[in-house]
Design brief:
2 strands, HK97 gp10 family phage protein, mainly alpha, two-stranded antiparallel sheet, HK97-gp10_tail, 3 helices
Amino acid sequence: MGVTVKGDKELIAAFERLDKTVDTKARKATRDGAKVFEQRLKTDTPRDKTGTDHSGMTPLAEHTKIGNLRGSTGNLEIPVGYDTEKGWIAHFPNSGTSKQPAQHFIEKAQAESKRPVMAKFVEDLKL
């Protein structure tokens, strides 16, 4: 699928098309990577035996959130974590307390997501 370029104007136009294509694919790859990580975070977030959190309320895993795409500096990123309703409690089971050992499920989700996220990036960024 080669493109024959005859002259400076055509070369510049070809680079501009390629730049737009790469930017679109990079944005898609970032969004898809965020979805992969969010799914792993939901899976790794602890629940009690009843499927709820310890207070009997909706489990923390149901409060994951994908933020908005940011890329003002040229680096694309999307924050993934928990919403404001329950997010503030995530650090207690993750980091532990005096009455509860640390479970490190956020770090586990990050480690387990690394390869699938990178595979999704490679898939999405193919030209």
